[in-house]
């Protein structure tokens, strides 16, 4: 039995409190606090899943797992509220290692300060420079350095917080006016500046490579995921076509990354974000996620059958009184846990008016994905749950 739990906004708890913040471009997403429901997709029979909030029992149908939610969760990571007796002596698989995770579990996990270090975009950028890989950026430590770096890129610049995630705390600065606005925000804060400035490159595809790094420094390469993004926000992932990139070559190209992570004292799951440029150049390391990830979840779901698992987000307008039960009823006859074509609803217990997003795993042949997406959209629309912000296949 494995005990699974975790906090999906892990970067918030790794981020030093004295760092200046970029201007907000959307604020916090309250749904992130309930995204630990997605860990159900990792669970094997008889695993114990602990979530922050109670899960709707219909989401657990067909899964032979034990489930508990913490009592009266307050602010902070879910690990802060888990009974230590539930994890004592058990095999644990947290989403990420935070200071509260280390206090809960102990020495069977890498030190939280090491995990925080290797998840920083500053650390990964220094590694890219050291390894001589394409796509390196520039770390700036003052408003003046930011102005210089963006100007030298002729305003083809992306500015990233070292602990930003999935489009949050990332800004594209393409005009002098935007640069001046960001500079003003930074100068008003009596905090330390540390930002990564990267050139906005002519991207063709986003993808990620995943491996499991063992405590002895060896690693198992798990596979690739092609990602779909809306702007800079991750929307989904799936197994890429063989023509996208040579998987064996890419796995070998991460040798230096594996060595550096092991030398730093990390072990556990790793996802490396990368991209393919329009001219065929591969940028093998954009950033390193030394934790579990949605791409890793999709890889795990993909092993359930010969069908391809496609992770997809469905954003819905929800009328008062409606919620996840209505979504599941709308998909009546279309549901699957991977043994046949269909959809697995991965979260949504807290879905309520005025709306939110639900993660789905669609199991089908690659060529059938568009057809399945249209069927699902039609189903929820007919049930009075209006889809919004629709995108193509994830």
Automatic annotation (TrEMBL):
Residues 125-320 form the ATP-grasp domain. PROSITE patterns: ATP_GRASP. SUPFAM superfamilies: Glutathione synthetase ATP-binding domain-like (SSF56059). GO terms for molecular function: ATP binding; metal ion binding. Keywords: ATP-binding, Nucleotide-binding. It comes from the Bacteria. This is ATP-grasp domain-containing protein. It comes from Kribbella albertanoniae. The lineage of its organism: Bacteria, Bacillati, Actinomycetota, Actinomycetes, Propionibacteriales.
């Amino acid at each position: 039995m494995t005990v699974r739990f975790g906090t999906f906004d892990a970067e918030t708890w790794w981020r030093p409190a004295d760092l200046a913040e970029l201007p907000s471009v959307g604020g916090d997403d309250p749904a992130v606090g309930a995204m630990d429901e997605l860990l159900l997709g990792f669970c094997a029979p008889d695993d114990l899943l602990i979530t922050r909030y109670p899960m709707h029992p219909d989401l657990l149908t067909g899964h032979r797992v034990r489930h508990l939610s913490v009592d009266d969760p307050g602010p902070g990571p879910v690990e802060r509220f888990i009974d230590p007796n539930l994890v004592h002596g058990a095999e644990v698989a947290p989403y990420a290692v935070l200071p509260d995770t280390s206090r809960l579990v102990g020495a069977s996990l890498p030190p939280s300060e090491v995990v925080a270090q290797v998840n920083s975009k500053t650390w990964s950028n220094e590694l890219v420079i050291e390894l001589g890989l394409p796509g390196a950026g520039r770390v700036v430590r003052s408003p003046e350095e930011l102005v210089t770096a963006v100007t030298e890129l002729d305003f083809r610049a992306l500015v990233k917080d070292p602990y930003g995630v999935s489009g949050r705390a990332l800004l594209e600065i393409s005009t002098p006016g935007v640069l001046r606005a960001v500079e003003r925000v930074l100068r008003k804060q009596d905090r330390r500046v540390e930002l990564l400035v990267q050139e906005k490159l002519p991207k063709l595809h986003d993808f990620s490579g995943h491996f499991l790094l063992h405590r002895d420094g060896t690693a198992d390469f798990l596979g690739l995921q092609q990602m779909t993004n809306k702007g800079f926000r991750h929307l989904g992932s799936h197994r890429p076509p063989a023509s996208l990139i040579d998987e064996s070559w890419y796995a070998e190209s991460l040798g230096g990354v594996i060595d550096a992570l092991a030398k730093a004292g990390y072990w556990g799951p790793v996802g490396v974000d990368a991209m393919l440029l329009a001219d065929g150049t591969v940028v093998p390391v954009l950033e390193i996620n030394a934790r579990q990830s949605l791409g890793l979840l999709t890889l795990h779901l993909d092993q359930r059958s010969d069908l391809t698992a496609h992770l997809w987000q469905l954003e819905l307008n929800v009328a008062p009184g409606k919620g996840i039960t209505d979504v599941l009823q709308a998909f009546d006859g279309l549901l699957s846990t991977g043994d046949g074509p269909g959809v697995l609803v991965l979260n949504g217990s807290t879905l309520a008016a005025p709306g939110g997003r639900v993660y789905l795993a669609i199991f089908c042949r690659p060529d059938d994905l568009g057809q399945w997406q249209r069927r699902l959209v039609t189903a929820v629309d007919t049930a009075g749950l209006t889809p919004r912000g629709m995108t193509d296949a994830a």
